[in-house]
Design goal:
The chain has 301 residues and is an alpha/beta fold. The chain is built from eleven helices and twelve strands.
């Protein structure tokens, strides 16, 4: 009996030794050793729906913000056939130029925001960085994943994509797998309706469908609330904005109108278009327009 107990004790001790050996093999950090803190990214951002760092302590927040929200479509190199089309040349910014523009934002100390952070500040009266911009992309082209996303990831810059749900998974457009893969970066999402129809030309039932169904589909796919819609081609009227609010959107994006400011109507939020013809000097004027707007406002006070 004594030998039996001794054998049991030895077996337990051997099991503990084997467990400790396996733990040292498969677990990089000992239980009581703190993990190293990763280096801070070069550019930092406000909280968003994904794993985003906080605004750096030295970034000044202001009540009277003016944020240029940049509107892109395609990020791609044009084929020879596409280059002959004025429309495609207008819609398309080359990856080289896009990287140059993103790098300019980082190198010049701009805080890059998601669209819903700007919306929330307008609705809730929150402060925003005095030198901020937001990048948005309309339509959900496949090149947003293939060409734009690697550049955004490289510079740790967020962006918001407004999705046309009826084209997801079709030729030349994002798939739901692409959309999910970009989410942790972070990339935010909003609605761009079901079919990209001119909302002002629709009857009441079709208008309801375009706004409600696109919101429902994106929310069910991403399991998160979708708060904003970008009006296709920037077309809106009172019926459109009222229906968007009735359905449960908190904001609507148009085109044109300069930087977003605190007293902007949440359903008429402006954006600054960046097209394929824009030079770097053009881009600089667009992104510095927020700082210039704040400067002129302060001079008038």
């Amino acid at each position: 009996m004594r030998h039996h107990h001794l054998g049991s004790i030895v077996a337990v001790l051997l099991a503990l030794i084997v467990s400790a050996s396996l733990a040292s093999k498969y677990y990089r950090y000992p239980i009581h050793t703190p993990r190293p803190v990763p280096a801070s990214p070069k550019i930092v951002h406000l909280n968003g729906p994904t794993n985003r760092p906080q605004v750096a302590p030295n970034v000044k927040l202001v009540d009277a913000f003016a944020v240029p929200v940049l509107m892109y479509h395609r990020i791609a190199d044009l084929t020879p056939a596409e280059a002959k089309s004025p429309l495609m040349r207008d819609l398309t910014v080359s990856p080289a130029h896009f990287e140059q523009q993103v790098k300019y934002l980082v190198d010049n100390g701009f805080t890059c925001l998601l669209a819903n952070e700007v919306e929330d500040a307008v609705r809730s009266g929150k402060k925003l960085p005095e030198k901020a911009v937001a990048i948005t992309m309309d339509d959900g082209y496949r090149d947003n994943f293939d060409c734009a996303f690697p550049i955004l990831s490289k510079y740790n810059v967020p962006a918001t994509i407004f999705i046309v749900t009826g084209t997801v998974g079709t030729s030349g457009h994002l798939t739901w797998a692409n959309i999910h893969e970009m989410r942790p970066h972070p990339v935010g999402y909003g609605s761009h309706t079901v079919s990209h129809a001119d909302l002002t030309a629709l009857g009441a039932d079709q208008l309801d469908f375009e706004l409600r169904e696109s919101k429902r589909v994106i929310e069910s796919r991403l399991v998160q609330r979708i708060t904003s819609v970008a009006y296709p081609s920037g077309q809106y009227n009172r019926a459109v904005t009222q229906k968007a609010e009735e359905i449960g959107y908190l904001a609507g994006w148009k085109k044109g109108g300069g930087p977003v400011q605190p007293r902007t109507d949440p359903f008429l939020l402006p954006r600054v278009r960046v097209n394929g013809y824009a030079t770097l000097d053009d881009f600089k004027r667009k992104v510095w327009s927020g700082v210039e707007t704040r400067k002129m406002s302060s001079e008038l006070d």
